[in-house]
Each structure stands twice: as C-alpha cells, then as structure tokens.
Design brief:
By secondary structure, the chain is α+β, with helices and mostly antiparallel strands. It is built from twelve helices and twelve strands.
C-alpha cells in the first residue's frame, strides 16, 4: 500500500479500518466498521467501507471470515505498525476527542461515564501505594480521590492486568472536557505540560506538548522521563505537577465557570486557572477569541507513587468507565 497508488484520504481510511479490525480481535462486518468510522470522524457509509475492504483484501491485509466479516492479517498488522507518520501523529488527539464524546457524566445526578487513567503495580506494593495516594490526594492539590482496583488477569477494553499485578483506575482530567461538551460548551484539548508551583501556587508551564502533534500522551512522556516533582509540591508547596490546558470560546466563559465550580465541588477534577480571552495562561499560548482552562492531571497521584521508588506503568487517557464503579479513596 503506497501513496503513489492511493491518495492520502483513502490511505487514512484504510489505516483506520485496519485499526478497528485490530482493536476488535473478532471478525467484524462492514456495517459495524462504518459505525466505528463515523464515531471517529470519518464520513463513510457501509458501501464505502466495502470498497475499502476490497482494496485491503487484494493486498492481503484483511481476510474474509465467511458471513462474520473481516479480520486483519499478520501482514495487515505489520502495515498498521508502519502507517503514515502523518496519520500516526494525530492519533492521540483522535483518541481524546472520541473519549470526550463518549463521556456522559451528569453533574446533577452524579451518574454516567467518565474517562480514566489505568496504572499497573506489583501486588506487593499495594499498601505502600495506597499510603502515598492518600497523602497526595488529601494534602494541598485538587486531585480526584475516585479510584478503582482492577484484579490480576482482568482484561479491560484496552489493557490486560498480568498475574502478580494490580490495576488502578484513576480519574482522568480530560473528563472535565467531556462534562463541558455535555453542557453545550465546545472544547479543544490543546496542551499537556509540566506546571511549576511555588508556595502552593501555579507559576508557569515549564514544558508543553501539543496534543495534536504527538502520537504518545504527553503525561506518559513526562512520567517516563521522570520530570515530575509531585511529592515535593505536596510536602513543601514547591514542585512540578502534571497539568493540561484546553481552549473554550470566550463567549462561553461565564457558563463554563459555573460548570467548573461544580466539577471542583464533585471532586472530579482540579481546576488550576481560567484565563482571559486570547491571553496566555501560565505561559501557555491561547488562540484569539478563546480562553484557556488549566486542570491538574489525574496522573499526578501515580506519578507520586513512581517518585517514591515503586515500579508503575501508567496508561493515561485509558478508557471510559461508569462512575459508579469508582470509589472515593
């Protein structure tokens, strides 16, 4: 499959179909593929999907399984791994936008789905991990206390918890974006960053990564490079926390402030700062006609666990979960 024989728009649709087949594991038909494609922003019908599947079949990237639909082949998996760089670069923002759309949490009823981060630790580290989480969550910064323990051997929609390990679901701050959208406020997740705090007050972003320009979540990048200082921030008031910025229309600020106040009251997310129209927020640029809203990342809690010497693997912006499955720490 080369760009000399297929234009870039068709290429992207072919790659997205391969992604869907790879994620699904079981054979899947054209109608369901079309539904998934539309959810991800591709305007395509069942007939169009069949056309693209014929191309994939001809190249040995997919295979028909009787009346059950198609599966991806080994060659298709290899092709997916070597997809267009430009297509891969936008993947994380596409995932974020889908999860925002899938968020249904209602501030009035306290019910619905939220976005979670998933972390994996050794079972032997459980007690120490809980101790650190309590210390971080209840001392100084607005980090959501809602978590869920996931037993070894559990397979979620995107992660399997290995034997001898435990999974920990924590509230993802992008849930805030889903709540804003559900309340009629357009939202654009823009940056993930490292936010310096002094005397328990945010000073400025030291590092910023644009969501639309990376295939890996910025929080995962910062955690893997051990760039956080969550425990110092909690213990001394000065350190480095993970945070992200989204843009909303300047005309929606008044209504957004009410919603974000309720978000804080519900302990769903920690709002750091709401900016001014077109003005940078804590050193992060904001587009004209927009207002930046900075929120502490839910991954701060597990970053603190990692800072304490415990081996943690964290998958930010992991999946959707019913809020009632989470319990306050």
């Amino acid at each position: 499959m080369t760009t000399t024989t297929i234009d870039s728009q068709v290429q992207r649709k072919l790659i997205e179909i391969l992604r869907i087949l790879h994620e699904n594991k079981e054979p899947i038909g054209a109608r369901l593929i079309a539904d998934r494609m539309n959810e991800r922003g591709y305007a395509i019908g069942e007939r169009g999907v069949r056309y693209h599947l014929r191309i994939l079949d001809e190249r040995g990237l997919t295979q028909r399984q009787g009346y059950d639909g198609r599966v991806i082949t080994e060659q298709g998996i290899h092709e997916l791994g070597n997809a267009l760089v430009g297509d891969r670069v936008g993947f994380i923002i596409n995932r974020i936008e889908k999860l925002i759309y899938d968020t249904t949490f209602d501030l009035k009823t306290g019910e619905g789905t939220v976005i979670i981060n998933t972390s994996i630790i050794d079972k032997d580290d459980f007690d120490k991990t809980m101790e650190i989480l309590r210390h971080v969550i209840y001392n100084g910064y607005s980090i959501s206390p809602y978590i869920k323990l996931i037993d070894e051997g559990t397979v979620t929609s995107d992660i399997e918890i290995p034997d001898g390990k435990l999974g920990l679901a924590t509230m993802c701050s992008i849930t805030v974006d889903g709540i804003l959208l559900n309340n009629g406020i357009p939202v654009n997740p823009k940056y993930g960053g490292i936010l310096e705090v002094k005397n328990r007050k945010p000073v400025h972003f030291e590092e910023l990564i644009v969501y639309s320009g990376t295939s890996i979540d910025p929080m995962r990048i910062f955690m893997s490079k051990k760039m956080t200082g969550v425990i110092p921030a909690v213990d001394t008031g000065s350190g480095k926390l993970l945070a992200n910025l989204r843009e909303i229309p300047m005309t929606a600020v008044s209504e957004a402030e009410k919603i974000l106040g309720s978000v804080m009251d519900a302990r769903i997310g920690g709002i750091v700062e709401i900016g001014k129209p077109g003005k940078s927020v804590l050193n992060a640029p904001v587009d004209a006609g927009k207002v930046g809203v900075v929120v502490y990342a839910g991954t701060n809690a597990m970053a603190a666990v990692e800072e304490s010497g415990i081996n943690v693997t964290t998958y930010p912006i992991s999946t959707i979960m019913d809020f009632k499955e989470l319990k306050k720490l």
